[in-house]
Design brief:
Layout lengths: L15 H4 L13 H15 L20 E8 L5 E2 L2 E2 H14 L3 E13 L4 H18 L2 E10 L7 E11 L15 E4 L5 H10 L16 H10 L3 E5 L5 H13 L2 E5 L7 H10 L13 E4 L1 H12 L8 E7 L6 E4 L5 E3 L13
Parallel strand pairs: 4-5, 9-12
Antiparallel strand pairs: 1-6, 2-3, 4-6, 7-10, 7-11, 8-10, 9-11, 12-13
InterPro entries: HypE (IPR011854), PurM-like_C_dom (IPR010918), PurM-like_C_sf (IPR036676), PurM-like_N (IPR016188), PurM-like_N_sf (IPR036921)
Protein name: Hydrogenase maturation protein, carbamoyl dehydratase HypE
Pfam family, one: AIRS_C
Length: 354
């Protein structure tokens, strides 16, 4: 996979028209010949598939029989590139994961690019290259899209909006309102990796251990979990606001209480150190390749073993339970034996993380 620095524009199909424009200009978003050249010489070769190449105003798709899930999201991460990923991978992984949290296998994505005048063409091409590779790795097709250009200073290089369609894999799709008293709370791995990686790069912080984003498409893990149990009641990807925000939302939707154990939370030492330096709590830090699952108690251990057998969940852990007390509230049993409420925060600790 090419990095921003390594990208060479001559490696793109039919690159000649782009060589005369090393940076994005307003004409690239005007719908004329420059727009056509950008689409034909950069986006289409990167995302190439039969559905996309029809180049119609919309794409007609043939879906397998059954229910579908549909999701959309926007990505404004700063910086555009960071250890372990870029805005390109996030745009694919984030929408794939939103679909899989409803028990769906993602199939098709759309991609809309908002580009800032002056963005280097090699930077855009590196983003597109990474996005295309992420889609191939995830087994999804980017089948339609759009490009707009805004004046210099009106954006931050590149914003991406994706929408996705997937086929629901289960007769009993998980939902935030389905948590039941007695259920067990699991996470698929270490918390806060993505958020602290982006923040440390943004603030030029360095640690003894290199921090890397956990960005990944989780539907293969979800499919294995659903095959192992028909009682996976809730799935969430704890992105903005982290684990605590996701569990608060579940507690409120299901009208239950949730209690987690601080000593059970998997957090890398480097992430814990970064949070301590910045005065932040790992449970509120964004993740892009982790999920939280709420499972019936009789199936929890089986689901945990299935998660740990998958590379996407090798560090999975049981971290808590659903309780009848303090309905609509998340509490944590601290390492000192005390109990504290983990409320919804008013705003984001780390803006522009995804």
């Amino acid at each position: 996979m090419l990095s921003e620095v390594e990208f060479v524009i001559e490696q793109w199909s039919c690159p000649l028209p782009l060589r005369d424009y090393p940076r994005i200009v307003m004409g690239h978003g005007g719908g004329g010949s420059l727009s056509a050249e950008l689409i034909e010489n950069l986006f289409v070769p990167a995302f190439r598939n039969d559905d996309l190449e029809a180049m119609a105003d919309s794409t007609v798709l043939t879906l397998p029989a059954g229910r579908i899930a549909f999701s959309t999201d926007a990505y404004v991460v700063h910086p555009l590139f960071f250890p372990g990923g870029s805005i390109g991978e996030l745009a694919v992984h984030g929408t794939c994961n939103d679909l899989s949290m409803s028990g769906a296998r993602p199939l098709y994505l759309s991609a809309s690019f908002i580009l800032e005048e002056g963005l280097e063409m090699k930077t855009l091409a590196a983003i597109v290259d990474r996005m295309a590779q992420a889609a191939r790795d995830a087994g999804v097709r980017i089948v339609t899209g759009d490009t707009k250009v805004v004046e210099r200073g009106h954006a931050d290089g590149c914003y991406i909006t994706t929408a996705g369609i997937g086929v629901v894999m289960t007769d009993h799709p998980p939902a935030p309102s389905k948590a039941k008293v007695g259920d067990v709370v699991l996470v698929s791995g270490t918390l806060g990796d993505h958020g602290m990686t982006v923040m440390s790069r943004r603030e030029n912080l360095s640690f003894e251990t290199v921090l890397e984003s956990d960005s990944a498409a989780l539907h293969p893990l979800v499919e294995a979990m659903l095959a192992a149990s028909g009682q996976v009641h809730v799935l969430r990807d704890p992105t903005r606001g982290g684990l605590a925000t996701s569990l608060n939302e579940i507690a409120q939707s299901s009208r239950v209480g949730i209690r987690i154990d601080e000593t059970a939370l998997p957090v890398r030492p480097a992430v814990a150190s970064a949070c301590e330096i910045l005065g932040m709590d790992p449970v509120y830090i964004a993740n892009e390749g982790k999920l939280v699952a709420i499972v019936a108690p009789e199936d929890a251990e089986r689901v945990l073993q299935v998660m740990r057998a998958n590379p996407l969940g090798h560090a999975a852990a049981i971290i808590g339970e659903v309780v009848a007390d303090h309905r609509g509230t998340l509490v944590e049993r601290t390492r000192f034996g005390a109990t504290r409420i983990l409320p919804l925060q008013i705003g984001e600790q780390l803006p522009r993380i995804c």
